[in-house]
Specification:
This protein is mostly helical. The chain has helices at about 5-40, 50-70, 80-110. The protein has one domain.
Length: about 120
Amino acid sequence: MYPQPPYVLMVAGFLAAIAAGSAFGATLQQSTRNWADRRDGQSLLAIRSLSLKLPYFTICAGVCVFLASGIQFFGFPANIAYGLALVLTAFMALLVWRQLGVILVQIERGGSKALDLDAF
């Protein structure tokens, strides 16, 4: 009566997001390290290039597939599940990308001490 939920897609989306997250973290660390070593007047926001956007997009795609597969567990058809997951993922991705920009500006202005989270 009900279609089988896509367990394989859920695991594949999760693993894709984890793998891309690892690549994103390594790229971000390397880019900020290179920026700190050079400091040639270039803004830290300039490191958000294709080499950083590609893993981020892959994270978002993996999360979208993971969310859509999870929504299908509740009996929603695939087109509705993917539509809802796409909206949720796009909203979350924009918020996280904006917050990354805010954090990079804080680091550029005050160094890593500007992110003292214990002060709050």
